[in-house]
Amino acid sequence: MDNLIEDIGIIDNSKKNLDTGEIRVSKNEKTEGKRKLYIESYGCQMNFADSEIVTSIMKDNDFTTTSEFKDADVILLNTCSIREKAEQTIRKRLTDFNKIKARNPNKIVGVLGCMAERLKTQLLEEEKIVDLVAGPDAYRDLPSLINQVDDGEKAVNTFLSREETYADISPVRLNSNGVTAFISITRGCNNMCSFCVVPFTRGRERSRDPHSIVAEAKDLFIKGYREVTLLGQNVDSYSWEDESNISSSVNFAKLLILVANINPELRVRFSTSHPKDITNEVLYAIKEHKNICNAIHLPAQSGNSRILELMNRTYDREWYIERIDSIRKILGEECGLSSDMITGFCSETETEHKDTLSLMEYVQYDYLYMFYYSERPGTLAAKKLEDDVSLTIKKRRLSELISKQQELSLKRNQLNIGKIHKVLVEGHSKKSVKDMQGRNSANKVVVFANNNNFKKGQYVDVLVNACTPATLIGEAINKSI
Question: What is the largest CA-CA distance in the chain?
Fold first, then answer.
């Protein structure tokens, strides 16, 4: 088990997906400027990608960045509202910042992202713990908002746009390993899952111009990056149409191919897919292009059809299984499969919980993000359903999911022993500078001895000879590139 944070169980051998609520802190690159900016990012990959956009906007407005909040003139928290735990952590962090601000009233503390969108009035006027609030579509307005605070005013912009994609902004890569990077392809979400706040905090779905996506990916490749992850709340619903030329419309499968065709040495990943939208066209695009990674994150949320209906997921157990069967038929058993599961959702019975366990057994997931249900104010579930499963039962069911996934992760990893994997080196192993680590196409972390002074960004053939539930362990047999 890699992580267990009260209401979150994660068995994962890759980067985190869009729904984890996991908390990380960005240490920023140095840029030239006068005033200092410190930014922390919480939650999903989309938030981290947004922080890179924010940093670019601030850099263009004469800000530098610092990794020490005590040195900053402006402190920004890019926040997550998907779990109550994330909001509690952010409030605690704001308390820390306000202690610093009490000694230096000129410091500006602001909240960005989903929590800003949901709690703007409470944060600004009732609790008075921030100076500015900016929603996910208002980042271009940040310099103006900061000017308002400089003039002694509280500043807020949480307008949700139907057009904003930040397509023209070149992100400043934060915490970059120089090998992998995120590219946002959509913003917002049109799905109304009853447990989820995203449609209310990020607005309606809109797709980014494919020309700007391809241009960003090309630029990253030129700069030495060798892997991009295309991001969206639901990448499979990506749809762009040139109003002057309808025949030039681009769906997600076509976008994948456009990016893959930049260079065969540029790996392409994507997250997150939706079971109702992922098509065989996407699966065949993966099959026919070796640099489109053979890994799919397909959140199920539950293995029971009644619960899925209450969640408003718009598919049932049988539909999900059919999609899994198609993935295995077209892409083979080697395809890395991951998912999200929520346990203890409203009125879930023991039998329905066991349906989730049986779905996990059927699919044989490589890794899984697991949560017990946390009611979020304003969601359809909070308005219409009773949160009637006790916390004790939720935690016990979560523990059962975690235990089951540990078994499955180990079993899936053991299938790789004795096989050779093409690994993109991302850097030194977390445990030893004598070892390197990277990931294979199926998104599995592979650790191997650095006998030949391998460098980040190289592809290495690794023979796997051992494993844990989270990691493949092997030896490099040659340097591919």
Answer: 65
